[in-house]
Input
Amino acid sequence: MKITLIHGQSHKGSTYHVARILAEKIDGEITEIVLPRDFDQMCVGCAQCIKKDEKLCPHYEKLAPITEAIDAADLLIFESPVYVYHVTSAMKALLEHYGWRWIMHRPEESMFKKQMVCIATAAGGGQKNTCQDMADSAAYWGVAKTYKYGIAVRAMKWEDVTAKTKDKIERDMDALASKIKANQGRVKPPLKTRIFFPVMSMVLKKRPDSVDAKYWKEKGWLDGKRPWK
Ligand SMILES: Cc1cc2nc3c(=O)[nH]c(=O)nc-3n(C[C@H](O)[C@H](O)[C@H](O)COP(=O)(O)O)c2cc1C
Output
């Protein structure tokens, strides 16, 4: 299984370790992207990616290797420590650069067959929101199956996490890795996606000259073809 692991921070703390433990248990081919080291650009808000062409983004070339790694993966693992109840700014900046890939615009076909895990660690709270920040993009990218794993590690660094919590993480990651392996190649997007997709198809048929409608037309999605089939 090809795994692309995106770290929302550049240090090897608790969140890094939880994500690595999971990736290693799945025993696939792992590609790692570390933020902001590998991508440190902020969205400039020109909206050219959404309105015209993603290649017009001033950061397109810098983003391209990450996009390739995402597209090549069977499993995406996105992780972020909780920073003031949400993902790190580096993770948020990356997600913003994929607004054009949301279902209502030009979703990537392979997403509809992928699995994704969103991982967050907090000292005490905010892990739910933080997982959701990443899961929102997963849902609107069309990812077939998304798992969320948040844990309050009660520490500011991995070395201070208790043995009991580390044991729990090991057990939780064993269970999650088994589920992911069992689901590989068998996932289908949730009902919400399968309902939203034809609704978007109807909306885009009414705007045949838009870049989004042209993309959907090329894919056959305006004529009943579906990316998960
Ligand atoms: C800028 C900053 C903001 C934080 N905000 C929160 C927070 O909102 N809630 C919380 O429980 N912990 C918060 N923390 C603590 C971290 O989320 C927590 O220690 C986490 O496990 C760190 O993960 P890491 O070791 O991967 O960096 C914050 C830490 C930093 C540096």
Observations:
- Residues 202 and 224 are 10 Å apart (CA to CA).
- The radius of gyration is 18 Å.
- The mean pLDDT is 98.
